[in-house]
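Our working data are protein records whose layout never changes between entries. Getting from the letters to the tokens is the skill we practise here. To make this concrete, we reproduce a full record directly below:
***
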Amino acid sequence: MKLVKLMYVSMFAAIMGVLGLLPPIFTGITPVPITLQTLGVMLAGSILGARFSPKYAAYSQILFLLLVATGLPLLSGGRGGIGVFVSPSGGYLIGYVAAAYLIGFLIYHMKKKTFFKRLLVNIIGGIIVIYSFGIPIQAFVMDIPITNALFLSFVFLPGDLLKCIIATLLTVKMQHSRVLSERVTEV
């Protein structure tokens, strides 16, 4: 791995840690908190996937989760350690890797990167994929039917849709500024 790619992977793992500094929001409905860290997953997939390849988006999340597993309190609310992976949040955390990869893959192979296509990709990866990992594991850990865990996850939808919009706006803005800066250097 080239140094530039390693720096980007490390930077997005660090962004995940910074987003974890913001306190979690506990709804009282589910033990899984609302955090901003899924925004970091979407940004990693959208930016690293478009710039390099989807595997680097996944690497950033793997690095972040390895740091969490070693006990660093990088998750929202100062959580860390191997125990978080067997908590109701564990599946959502594991879903970070798959979501970042899929978002990166879809963005990387997208011919025309419009706002709405990017938004759809962030919804697919940042919501559907993460929920696909999180809901079954939450149901298993909490010993509840999967349908109950599905209904509990509806509390996350408004915030996650907002995070998809923010991630899309940021990546579109970054793409435009990068294109403009490349044009300036060519002149």
Observations:
- The first helix runs from residue 3 to 19.
- Residues 183-187 have pLDDT under 50 and may be disordered.
- The chain has one domain: 3-186.
